[in-house]
Amino acid sequence: MDRPAGVRLLAAPKPRLKEIQRRLLRHVLDAVPVHGAAHGCVPGRSVRTAAAPHAGAAVVLRMDLEHFFGSVPAARVHGLLLGQAGLPEPVAHAITGLVTTVLPSAVWRRVPLPDDVRARERHRRLGTRLAVPHLPQGAPTSPALANLVCFRLDRRLAALADAFGATYTRYVDDLTFSGGPRVGRRRLAELVGEIAREEGFRVNAAKTRAISSARRQDVLGIVVNDHPALPRRERDALRALLHNCVTRGWATQLRGRDPATFRDHVLGRVAWAASVDPASGARLRALADRVDWS
Fold it and tell me: What sequence ranges are listed for the domain Reverse transcriptase (predicted)?
C-alpha cells in the first residue's frame, strides 16, 4: 500500500462482479474508439508502441497524472456511456453503478499519513476523490473507461504537441512529449498542467522530467536515446542469468524463486526484451534455447 509519493489502493471486484465487468469490456467498451495517443490497455498497443515514437528526440518530457483512476468520477463515466457509447439513460445508469465504487471511510482512516508536507496534501486530495463514486483501480473496466474519458484530453494534448513540433503519447497516467529544444522549456509543461486541470486531472509536478539526449532518456522503462532498448543493467543481468543457466544449470539460479515457475519467469523476461528490441532479444532468445530445462 505504501510508496514514497503516497498510497495506491486496489479495489479488486469479487468474482461475479469481475465477470460482469469483463463482459461489459468485451461487448460494450471495446467497440468505442480511443484516441491514437492512448497506448495503455489498448488492444494492439503496448509499452513499446508508447515509447518508440520518442526514439532519437533531442528532448523527452515525462509527466504524470496524479491519482489517475480516482480522478474519474461516476458522473463522467455516466456522461461517456450516454454520449460516446450511445447507451440509453437507464442502461448507462446501471452500468455506471457496476463499474464505479466508493472507498469506505473506515478503510481510508487506516491508510498511513505520509510524513512529507507535499505528500500529505496529495494524500488529502486522494481521500477527497475516493470518498465519492469513482473508477476503482483493479477493475477490468477501469483502464478502458479512463482511456475513453481521456479522449478530449488526448486530443488537446496532441494538438498542443503539434504546436510545439513535438510528439505525444499517453500510457495510462504517464504523459510523454518529445521533440526539439522547445519541449524542454517550462512553457509546454505549464500548458499541459492547465489543460489537465480543465479536463479534471492534476499533473504531479514532482514527477515532471525534461531529459536531453545527452542523458539517458527513459520512457516507461525503455531507453529511447537511439532506438527502443532495455536499460543496459537490465539487459546485462538477463544475459548473465541465461549464461549461468547454460553453464551451471538453471537450478543454481533460483535464489529463492519457485522452481515450478522459474522457467516461465525467465522466458517471460526474454519475450519482453525481444518485444522492446528485436535484435537484442533474438540474441537473448538464442541463449535461452541453449538452456537445458529438464
Answer: 1-224
